[in-house]
């Protein structure tokens, strides 16, 4: 009888261990939903490199204690993370990714929206949603100087000025030429490759992560896969084929082996049935010219996570 009871206790303990371990893995490792902080008590700071439209004043605001950076990836579909996302003090979104109709998975709040110059027309096409209903959102627009130049009134900048005339309560900032150069320099320092010479484009995710590291004390990233997620046997590794410049010895990319058999998800959660996320990433990573280096960027984000308070959720993965 004693032996039987011992075996039963051991079995129960094993089951509890497995269940608790599984629960710890699947739960977001950020603060619980419903515990959103009040605005940080720290003093207002000035952030150079972000110029307000149309007066050119720099960004001034307090730091955010906890930020949610929400990927536009199809990984978010069915995640039911909306409450956890909205529970963060500040929520950062990218380009024209909507919340309406997807609140259960991606949340409803938008503190900051980082937008490529190529996505500005998509915002302009739905002004009541992006500008009239979301006037508390701060917009950060990035793009090349010829599109964004304030003095020469680049085409994208002109469009932003017109938006401000229609919605004067909006807060729209553009990244200065100096800030754009800084972001290029960060890429080169991390990879050993000149962005322009290697035919690379930076993604909106790149600018969003740099902004988040400046504004946020803790960053919780939702829906962003790791650099090894989309790799499979026989596929060229990140950086292969897109530059003759040798990789930085400090940047270590994961080996070309897929982590596990993942189901296909759309590149954007709001564009179901269109581009496959992994196919998109691999196509751009291997392009010799005009390619977004999504996989390389994620390897860099992983490195940053070792030095900064950055947590990746759904899928969960650790900085290396």
Overview of this structure, please?
The chain has about 325 residues and is an alpha/beta fold. It has a single domain (about 40-315), classed as sialyltransferase cstii, chain A. Helices cover about 35% and strands about 15% of the residues. It contains 11 helices and 11 strands. The chain has helices at about 1-25, 80-85, 105, 120-125, 125-130, 145-150, 155-165, 175-190, 205-215, 275-285, 295-305; strands at about 45-50, 60, 65-70, 90-95, 110-115, 140, 170-175, 200, 215-220, 290, 310-315. The strands form 2 sheets. The protein has a 9-stranded mixed sheet, sandwiched between helices. A two-stranded parallel ribbon has the order 8-10. The longest helix has 25 residues, at about 1-25. The termini are far apart.
In terms of structural class, how would the helical and strand content be classed?
A: alpha/beta
Q: What is the helical fraction, as a range of percent?
A: 25-40%
Shape descriptor reads globular
CATH topology type: sialyltransferase cstii, chain A
Q: What's the oligomerization state? A: single chain
Strand order of the largest sheet: 2-1-7-6-5-4-3-9-11
Q: What is the correct CATH architecture?
A: Alpha-Beta Complex
- Report the biggest beta sheet as strand number plus sense, adding barrel if it closes: 9 strands, mixed
Q: How many domains comprise the coordinates?
A: 1
Strand content: 15-25%
Count all strands and give the number. 11
The average pLDDT is: 84
Radius of gyration: 21 Å
Low-confidence regions: 15-28, 233-241, 243-259
CATH classification, class level: Alpha Beta
